[in-house]
Amino acid sequence: MPSNLSAHNITIRRGENVVVENSTFDIPAGKITAVIGPNGSGKSTILHAIAGLLELESGHLEIPTDAEISYVMQYTAIPVDAPLTVREAVEMGRWNQLGIFKRLSKADREIVAAAMDRLAIGDLSKRHLSELSGGQRQRVYVAQGIAQTHNWLFLDEPLTGLDINSAAVIDELIHDEPARGHSVVLTTHDLAEAQAADYVILMAGRVVAHGAPAEVLTAENLATAYGLAALHHDHSGLGIPDLDPHHG
Amino acid sequence: MEFFLEPFALGFQQRALMGGLLAAIMTAVVGTWLVLRGMSFFGDAFVHGVIPGIAAAAFFDFNPLIGAAIAAFLMVLLIEVIHRQTTLSEDTAIGLLFVGMLALGVVIVSKVDSYSGSITTILFGDALGVTATDLRTQLVLAVVVIVAGLLMYRPLLALAFNRDKATMWKLHPGRTHAIFMALVAISVIGSYQSVGTLLVFGFLVGPPAAAALISRSVKTMMLFAAGISSFSVWLGLTLSYHFSTAGSATMAVIPVFIFFILLIWKRFSARSSSRKVEVSNA
Fold first, then answer.
1. Using 50, 70 and 90 to split pLDDT, how confident is the model at B276?
2. Do A95 and B164 touch (CB under 8 A)?
3. CA B129, chain centre distance (Å)
4. B84-134 residue pLDDT tens
5. Does residue A233 register a pLDDT over 90?
6. Given a cut of 70, is residue B15 above it in pLDDT?
7. Across the interface, do A77 and B37 touch by the CB < 8 Å criterion?
8. Which among A27, A23, A25 is positioned nearest to A3, based on CA atoms?
9. What pLDDT shows up at residue A229?
10. Does the distance separating the beta carbons of A77 and B161 come in below 8 Å?
11. Which residues pair with A33 in a beta bridge?
């Protein structure tokens, strides 16, 4: 039975600003966890801290000793017109295991091919990243993430701004990962995506609530996280009652 | 045939060619990463940043390579200090040091007896004055840059791709960046005598930018960049011999021409292939 990941009273600072304050939560292993909250609420910051990319100001994280985290981030620094093919970009996911010098083995190439197949980009393997649509590029970055040996997959807003096809392929992969014994943690702005997860963490500079979607995504919690105005009209299909900010 | 051989008949002309070729290969390796990381402005500032070190070496009579190395180290250090200690962007820090170091270099050079000759040599190089000793030093520096560039391929590509991903892949982006800064310094120091500090920048950016237009991978980009810069050295020296133009400036302007020729060719070939698709779809 894989172990859960836990945070105890964590505070995280970025430069002068406290981005996440005194928050305690669990992330269940083998499940899909959605981290939801408004812009600047600390969603990506939490993923960065757990991945070891940010130091905690205080508190502590309990990360399973066998956790192998692969993190698909929202951004890349390299210019989109850099001479990099889809296959090369996905192969980079193996560098964590290969280090600086070790060449890709047959097994590595099979993992890369399988990752490209799962993201339906096998036929694009020789294309340049610059020749792809935004959605296809996002599929490449997710393929790179799953090509890396992992049992925890972190995805920072993996579905934001994608075409329907790419979003469907990535969404299917997200929901397929737990069946492979992997845990998924994703950040999202989409209430429906959060509702479809097994576990939700609602953020607003601190953890407002965490637990099953039905317990967390209540009108009261969302009003606390987003402010009343955001919920004046519910278009989420979640049955969240209308809240009038002028009479709140 | 004589048109091409005559410019390299004498020893000093052959040394100029060799010095230029070594500079071309060094700058192609380093310049590819500068272009991929969007650090062209840093490269421009950096090549000017070594000027006070070279000028100080001329004034106090010590090895200019040591002077350039000290100035390069100081420049990188001060950019980091400004970047970390203030909220100013790295771009502003680079700009500040660019002007500061260039001005300091000119101030020091103005105290040297042959003021105009010294500044011209530093800025535009003295390809025909390259000695056998200079070549040996350059060869050692070129080998260091090429070997380190090959060994650091994965860390450098990971750093160019995403610094945080490089951290997660355990490819040590901080250490990689420091080594890269050292390689930029070595390639500038190893090239300035042949092509001058001002025109080293042309070699750092011109050939990789032109190569990026026709490359399918980073490795081929590096090879094409080395090919374009080597061709530019040879053609530049040939033209400069026959038409009595400034050698290093002639060498440096050729990659820019090549860039635009490739750009126009790429535009035309893209247009003709899109027409073919339209015809086949009709």
1. low
2. no
3. 20
4. 788 787 788 888 888 898 889 888 888 776 655 666 777 777 777 788 888
5. no
6. yes
7. yes
8. A27
9. 45
10. yes
11. A185, A199
